[in-house]
Amino acid sequence: MYRIVLALLIILLTVIGCSVPTSPLTVVLATPINGTVTQTLSPTMSWVGIGNNTYHLQIASDSGFQNLVVNDSNLTKLYHVVPAGRLSTATTYFWRVRASYGGETGPWATAWYFVTPGGSPIPPPGATGTINIATTLDGTSWYGSISYTLTGPVTVSGNATPQTFNDMPAGSYLLTFNHGGPPGASFISISPSASDSLVGGRSLNFTMAFSNPVSGSSVQTSATLNGMPWSGSVQYTLTHYTVSGPVEDNEYSVPRTVGYIPSGNIQLNYRSGGPAGATLSSITPSTQQNVPPGGTAYFVMNFVYQQPQPTYGTISVSATLDGAPWQVALGSGSISYSLIGPSSHSSSTVPATFSSQPTGSYTLTYNSGGPTGAVLASISPSASQTLSSGGVIHYTLNFYSQARGTVYVTATLNGEPWSGSVGYVVHGPHIESGSYAPQSFSNAATGTYTISYSSGGPPSSVLESITPSSQIMPAGGSINFNLHFRYHGGVLPGPLVQ
Q1: Mind listing the pLDDT tens digit for each residue in 58-72?
Q2: How far apart are the C-alpha atoms of 201 and 169, rounded to whole Å?
Q3: Which tops the pLDDT comparison, 452 or 13?
Q4: Mind spelling out the 3-state secondary structure of the chain?
Q5: Least CB-packed of 17, 20, 33, 206 within 10 Å?
Q6: Residue 496: per-residue pLDDT
Q7: Confidence (pLDDT) at 193
Q8: Which residue, 374, 363, 274, is CA-closest to 324?
Q9: What is the pTM of this model?
Q10: What gap in Å lies between CA 141 and CA 283, rounded to an integer?
Q11: Between 4 and 222, where is the model more confident?
């Protein structure tokens, strides 16, 4: 059954144009196909791997895999049926698999996602959606001037609500309230959350909630960076001096409005945080103020950079195969490399561009992969380069093809050569399905190969072994696998005696 499932998965991957594993610890996801709707709440998750690996499957309701609904490891098959009760209807789930063998663990396969019954298919990656921003005051819709920033795959700012942003790239977004809003009201929260993920072809809604103070005084805190408004994380303490003694209120962000406080003297004490690399120069109009009944005290924390602000440049990475441009695409091979420097990245895409990178020295490290059957010859102009302010550095990974070889498959019956119909699959960088022995398969890339028996062979016989179990194809060479059958019938067929 295992061999049949494996053969079917490989055929499926070929039909839909997916790549197949090129190293023993590489995993390629197979079904459910990315972005599709499953027919059941207990779908069969399948993938393709090489060798006698164990596998670790994760399914989560978020792309960051923080909310796991399935986290099963030590799986020995290339498929796993999701137990009943784990998945909900009309819900998008993300899944990934990685392989382990002999104490080593491979990388996670590129995550796919699917929708359970009752939902709609997900548009392909790169699709866009709509983001709506609204404001409420005491639970009622409010319209007016308000400053906020939406940060994600693209960053936009708004100065009024309601506001709709169309054609926004799919991905995770964070809404930050800056200042403004209903006069005299206090900012309460952002619902359903300040951060959420936009799926292509769909819409995402953020609502900023404000509340009018019923009575009492209030304090509004804000901050500047080199004279310009700034918002973010900063820790400070508001101390209210009452007839019963001082009362402290610890706060962690700006801008911030704190209502329902007693009138009288109030003091702001800065503790830590603020803009990265900046220092607090002053608190205006002063660190201590007298708040009248029903009035508002305003504190502004003023930060400045003591050192020049960091400068940035661009890094690009491309690849060639035998001198011609090569890029990652279905069926062409996968690649893994790392950029190490003031800002470090790991990527599986070429060509690739990394914008707004801090200046300094960078090193490109090749990890694995590349064009199928090729080897890395060099990284040009150098694996280590220096990025200057406003400059661009470019890395090219240069691959060269290796000579192709031939895989031969033969068979024996009770130790004697045999020929006839038999089904099997050759696994490796070059994958083939055979239906006869002897048979040969040319144009095979270098790498490790194995063979799995499917069906057929001499009548009334069983497969005893396949020798050798695995082989390494040298560049331009050949390897041979032999399927050994043993007759299990009554009398071994032979020539008719007259």
Answers
A1: 999 988 899 999 999
A2: 10
A3: 452
A4: CHHHHHHHHHHHHHHHCCCCCCCCCCCEEEECCCCCECCCCCCEEEEECCCCCEEEEEEECCCCCCCEEEEEEEECCCEEECCCCCCCCCCEEEEEEEEEECCEECCCCCCEEEECCCCCCCCCCCCEEEEEEEEEECCEEECEEEEEEEECCCCEEEEEECEEEEEEECEEEEEEEEEECCCCCEEEEEECCCEEEECCCCEEEEEEEEECCCCCEEEEEEEEECCEEECEEEEEEEEEEECCEEEEEEEEEECEEEEEECCEEEEEEEEEECCCCEEEEEEECCCEEEECCCCEEEEEEEEEECCCCCCEEEEEEEEEECCEEECCECCCECEEEEEECCCCEEECCCCEEEEEEECEEEEEEEEEECCCCEEEEEEECCCEEEECCCCEEEEEEEEEECCCEEEEEEEEECCEEECEEEEEEEECCCCEEEEEECEEEEEECCEEEEEEEEEECCCCEEEEEEECCEEEECCCCEEEEEEEEEECCCCCCCCCCC
A5: 17
A6: 39
A7: 83
A8: 374
A9: 0.29
A10: 35
A11: 222
d(CA 137, CA 28): 50
| Stretch 436-441: mean pLDDT | 94
- Neighbouring residues of 329: CB distance < 8 A, sequence distance ≥ 6: none
Contact 168, 129 (CB under 8 A): yes
Percent of the chain with pLDDT over 70: 88
Domains of the chain: 2-115 (2.60.40.10), 128-211 (2.60.40.10), 217-305 (2.60.40.10), 312-401 (2.60.40.10), 405-487 (2.60.40.10)
**Could you read off the pLDDT of 218-244 as tens digits, one per residue?**
889 999 999 999 999 999 998 877 644
